Amino acid sequence: MIVRAILVALIATCSTWWFSHIITRTWLYPIWSGFLVGIVMGRPMEGMMLAAAINLPYVGFITAGGSMPGNAMFAGSVGTALGLVSGLDMTTATTIGVILGSVAVMIWNAYMSINSMWVHMAEKAAARGDLKMVRFFNYVPSFFVSLILNGLPAFLIVMKGSVVGDWLSAMPQWIIDAFAMVGGILPALGIGMLLNYLGQTKKLLPFFFLGFFLAQFLGLSTMAITVFGAIIAFVLYYFGKDKEDKEVA
């Protein structure tokens, strides 16, 4: 169990560490970090399902100017780990994940504030012409800050998550029902935020209704619709690129 806890802690650390986002921006989304947590915990499908449920409220998630309404990275990794260890269903896990994400905004703010110190140290090293220390201050300290603020809670959740499960089991049924109700509403909130964005960029609305039609009336699976959407995106991209090339020529 301790090996799994360490690996989950590293996933939680990388989900926030800035260098991981250069490699791939998917670290921002719970469905990716949660899936990795599921693999480490030996339950990849359950991890993906829990992560997808936690991800839904964050579908319309926007970080403007570095501020965020919820820490989706923390919710994805720690929330999925908590759900797997405690045996939570998807609706309850969604609620717990969003609560964790909301509380963890303070962790994000602390992470960004602490890391601002390394920028000044890197600037002083650059003024001295010490490129090795510039690289050091850019990469190393921020990793350990993320490890402490994000990795340590994830480690403790995996090691002591059963305690949380027992605590939830001891709750009155009406509280559990309230969690389930809120967990059912939150995905709709995320989809509503996405629809609000699509409404502002009206060019995307036909694709939304096309996907709805394919699922509702033709009964196509999510995978089939995904492949169909990827083909449309591919065709539009290359036809648009050819048009731009002709205009330039």
Automatic annotation (TrEMBL):
The keyword Transmembrane helix applies. Keywords: Cell membrane, Membrane, Phosphotransferase system, Sugar transport, Transmembrane, Transmembrane helix, Transport. PROSITE patterns: PTS_EIIC_TYPE_4. The keyword Zinc-finger does not apply. Pfam families: EII-Sor. It comes from the Bacteria. It is a multi-pass membrane protein. GO terms for biological process: phosphoenolpyruvate-dependent sugar phosphotransferase system. GO terms for cellular component: plasma membrane. The chain crosses the membrane at residues 26-42, 49-70, 90-111, 136-159, 171-195, 207-239. Its main location: membrane. It is found in: Cell membrane. This is PTS sugar transporter subunit IIC. The lineage of its organism: Bacteria, Bacillati, Bacillota, Clostridia, Lachnospirales.
